[in-house]
Design goal:
The chain is an alpha+beta fold and 177 residues long. The protein is built from two helices and nine strands, in the order βαββββαββββ.
């Protein structure tokens, strides 16, 4: 039986390791704790994002260019769909009380972000302008220098059986299938 204890690290790709290291260490305050030089002209750096988890980046001299709208979000929330097998966004857990100060820090650092905390709920829109008992996650969305969509997320309730209420969709349900 497989038994995991959480996420060890998520490995992403950056266009410029120096710029990426500065963003994650200086803006997000995530210490760089391991660096690796890769054979053939590449690097692999690891940043501590708390509680034993990390976010890592690869950089290659000859890496392919970014593909927004395919491998990453083009813009949130207007065009947030990404291709099968891509990573849509990476969410860092954060206490709810820290979300407003995170918005201020992103603003001070000149980082493009949602200008208010997003309240996710089960309404048709999936979000609400106001905080109410049906809100289950509060979020701040922003992008890093590579165009990767990131999120600070605070879970606001305990989940139970009633929170699993939808039948999984199949590939046959896709409009292009």
């Amino acid at each position: 039986m497989i038994k995991t204890t959480g996420i060890n690290h998520v490995a992403l790709v950056c266009r410029d390791m120096k710029e990426t290291a500065a963003f994650y260490t200086e803006v997000l305050n995530m210490p760089l704790f391991k660096t690796v030089e890769l054979p053939g002209g590449g690097q692999h750096f690891f940043f501590d994002c708390g509680n034993g988890s990390s976010v890592a980046f690869f950089w290659w001299e000859d890496g392919p260019e970014a593909a927004p709208g395919i491998a990453s979000v083009r813009s949130f929330p207007m065009d947030a769909k990404t291709a099968v097998g891509s990573m849509n966004h990476l969410a860092f857990d954060m206490p709810e009380a820290e979300l407003e100060s995170a918005l201020e820090r992103l603003q001070e650092a000149g980082v493009e972000h949602t200008h208010a905390v997003v309240n996710h709920d089960d309404s048709a829109a999936g979000m609400s302008r106001t905080l109410h008992p049906g809100v289950f996650v509060r979020s701040v969305y922003f992008t890093d220098p590579n165009g990767i969509m990131l999120e600070f997320a605070a879970t606001t309730k305990k989940f139970g059986p009633s929170d699993v209420a939808h039948t999984p969709a199949t590939a046959a349900m896709r409009k292009d299938a």
